[in-house]
Amino acid sequence: IGLSVPASGIAHSIDEAMDVVGQLGLPVIIRPAYILGGRGTGIATTMKEFKQVVSAGLAASPINEVLIETSIKGWKEYELEVMRDRADNCVIICSIENVDAMGVHTGDSITVAPAMTLSDVEYQEMRNAALACIRRVGVETGGSNVQFAVNPRTGEQVVIEMNPRVSRSSALASKATGFPIAKIAAKLAVGYTLDEIANDITKKTPASFEPTIDYVVTKVPRWAFEKFEGVSNSLGTQMRSVGEAMAIGRTFPESLQKALRSLEIGRAGLNCDAAEKNFDALDDLALYVAIETATPDRIFQVGECIRRGFSLEKLHDATGYDLWFLDQMKLIYDERATLATQSPATLDRRSWRRAKRLGFSDTQLAWLWGSDEVEIRRWREAAGVIPTYKSVDTCSAEFAAETPYFYSTYEDESEVRPSTKERVIILGSGPNRIGQGIEFDYCCVHASFALRAAGYETVMLNCNPETVSTDYDTSDRLYFEPLTTEDVLNVIAAETKAAGRSPKVIVSLGGQTPLKLAGSLPSELVAGTSPASIDIAEDRERWNELCTRLGIAQPPGATATDLQSARAVTARVGYPVLVRPSYVLGGRAMRIVHDDEQLAAAMAEMERFGSLGREGGLSSSRPVLIDRFLQDATEVDVDAVRDASGEVLIGGVMEHVEEAGIHSGDSACALPAQNLSVAALAAIEANVKKIADALDVRGLINVQFAVVDDSVFVIEANPRASRTVPFVAKATGVPLAMVASRVMLGATLMQLRDEGLLRAPVSGHVSVKEAVLPFSRFPEVDTTLGPEMRSTGEVMGIDATFGRAFVKAQSAAGTELPMSGLVFLSLNDR
């Protein structure tokens, strides 16, 4: 069809691959057939690398086939989302541009929509090529993703890939434009044409109208390298991110800074926070060398180079970032320099608005001016500078938007409409990460469904384009915003103004992210368990005191704030011990310690990263808990709901398959428990009741226990949704998240039984949950599991017996059980 592609050849063996590379020459990129996420791909610059990557690629491909192409690393990368119907009507839904050049997997690249650096001529050429591809490949109906590379020096354009299906980018394009690609594709598959399908958002235009947008969308991946000790954090052709955040703004700087603060990695934006001092130890040469390799920190390192005065051309040569993006980033640093000469008292309204339009958060300004966020907010509001909310409407405001899907910016007119219904804001879980993934999004979505059915107007606030909660029709209103104190308070203010009264806010369904915001929100607005009770359960020292007061057995231990006090604890309780920080999820930084040397290393990590991972410090208000590690114990998880009357519903008692010491998120578990005595089960349920009553829980609570010879010890409690709630709901048929959301708003369990929402659990079967681990992406990592969670997903098996359910779960996780072979027995836990 006359389209350019990189020179290439196909191989099914090393010998065939050698013939291909002999014709192409090095460097080349090797891409296995029928894989996702770039698994098994790589760029080879030497023959040794070539043989290694080809061998890995052939092994990764289910048909033992690899495509070998001339490397175009460093070229600019673009994507177009295309749809076609049975009448040959085709539309371009969205163009996407990668900030990172070719050589970094698109799933690991910062991406922007619409494409920013294409001329109209280049875009039209690309558009025509994408339409030719979808027609020639034979996509009769549905969506496709077509990827292009453009030589930044000559403008040469080549097609590099086509996916004749919905893809990772399709989800991003759907959220970026408000055009539901998967939904429309389903309708096209059953015979509709694009002109017959109404646009959900405008209610006036058909799906054959190509979306047009008057804002900028930025997606930034989130990685979890901190979970894998010793692994290189360099990025390449194999995708290694575990989640992503998306932000919408009127300008690229605003969109970029909002996306960066959405990541929850301790950064408030591109600059102006304590973490920017991380690069102080690097001289100019070392910093320039660092940005030549793509890493999660590169965007911040490039920003530091701009602050130091590096030329944009030099930065372009090192990174492949287009000069337009670098110039836009420079606007942020120019504004920072101007703001540094001002103060909140001297800044006029116009200057406030300029700073906010460039994406500066109140937290950044507080850091820059040596103030605090509360004070900055007071000064900003006194100047009359508050955000306005604009609709994502698919048509650049040509038609009115009927579906309220909003983003914030700083202009004159807000598009949030008044309403008289009682509203509830549900705070989502932010970007997926190890320890906090779609399990919590499930809870938020089901809460929205239940509360809408009960007559409430639900308002969802989240920044994750991969989730169902950010579908515009999951809730009555959607705010695509970062989950920070500033942004949440802004949405509360907007909703209060629209309704004439303040909404309730649910913080306990989205995992640790919204939970950590609870203390900075007006306590009277927090629905369910109070922030004070949440704090008791999260703070290791206060939790210890509560269990002692209730007479609930715990492993012997105490809290510590430095190495000296930690050694005092271990001298009293003996090794091995479990070291656990406060206010974390997914077992972040937890360690099993066997001697003084390991203890010193564990406490040094706490000092370095803080007991909040990268988000806090080790201090008297953020201690670590050190308790005796119970070897050979059985670990048990319990999910329960308590209402205002004091009734406690035990949703499920789950028994872990792996021994205590393996994080619950990495361990298989069975429901119902298979090996617990009647006495142990009774003690567990009684302790859950005691703890829930003491914390005055209104909604969900998860409690973890260790059982040794029928003696029950409590490990921890979390008065929030846990990652096992969806598993329990699917295993028992009891919609725990729906029930909990109603309870948080005042309903009792008895009322919900009468309504029919709370049903008796389904029994007569065994359900097994198994973890899915990402070690294939990190081959250099020790695969031994421990108290820090490392799984990125989970599967479930159901059958009449535990054995059958377990085999199903293993098969679903990609582990086929061998019928014969050798068994490895480990005799030393150290």
What does this structure look like?
The protein has 830 residues and is α+β, with helices and mostly antiparallel strands. The chain folds into six domains: 8-70, Dna Ligase, domain 1, CATH 3.30.1490; 76-213, ATP-grasp fold, B domain (D-amino Acid Aminotransferase, Chain A, domain 1); 266-382, Orthogonal Bundle (Carbamoyl Phosphate Synthetase, Chain A, domain 4); 417-535, Rossmann fold (3-Layer(aba) Sandwich); 556-628, Dna Ligase, domain 1 (2-Layer Sandwich); 634-812, D-amino Acid Aminotransferase, Chain A, domain 1. 33% of the residues lie in helices and 20% in strands. The protein has 25 helices and 28 strands. The strands form five sheets. It has a seven-stranded antiparallel β-sheet with strand order 9-8-5-6-7-10-11, with helices on both faces. It has a seven-stranded antiparallel β-sheet with strand order 26-25-22-23-24-27-28, with helices on both faces. Strand 25 and strand 26 (711-718) form a beta hairpin. Helix 7 packs antiparallel against helix 8 and helix 14 crosses helix 23 (736-744). It is globular and about 75 Å long. The model is unreliable at 611-616 (pLDDT under 50).
Could you give the topology of this structure?
Blueprint: E1 8-11, H1 14-24, E2 28-32, E3 42-44, H2 47-60, E4 66-70, E5 76-84, E6 90-98, E7 111-113, H3 120-137, E8 142-150, E9 157-163, H4 168-177, H5 181-189, E10 216-222, E11 243-249, H6 252-262, H7 284-291, H8 298-308, H9 312-319, H10 323-340, H11 349-357, H12 362-369, H13 373-382, E12 388-391, E13 405-409, E14 423-427, H14 438-453, E15 457-462, E16 477-480, H15 485-499, E17 504-506, H16 512-515, H17 531-538, H18 540-550, E18 557-560, H19 563-573, E19 577-580, E20 591-593, H20 596-609, E21 624-628, E22 634-642, E23 648-659, E24 669-671, H21 678-694, E25 699-708, E26 711-718, H22 725-732, H23 736-744, H24 749-755, E27 766-772, E28 793-799, H25 802-812
Parallel strand pairs: 13-16, 14-15, 14-17, 15-16
Antiparallel strand pairs: 1-4, 2-3, 2-4, 5-6, 5-8, 6-7, 7-10, 8-9, 10-11, 12-13, 18-21, 19-20, 19-21, 22-23, 22-25, 23-24, 24-27, 25-26, 27-28
Helix pairs in contact: 7-8, 12-13, 14-23, 17-18
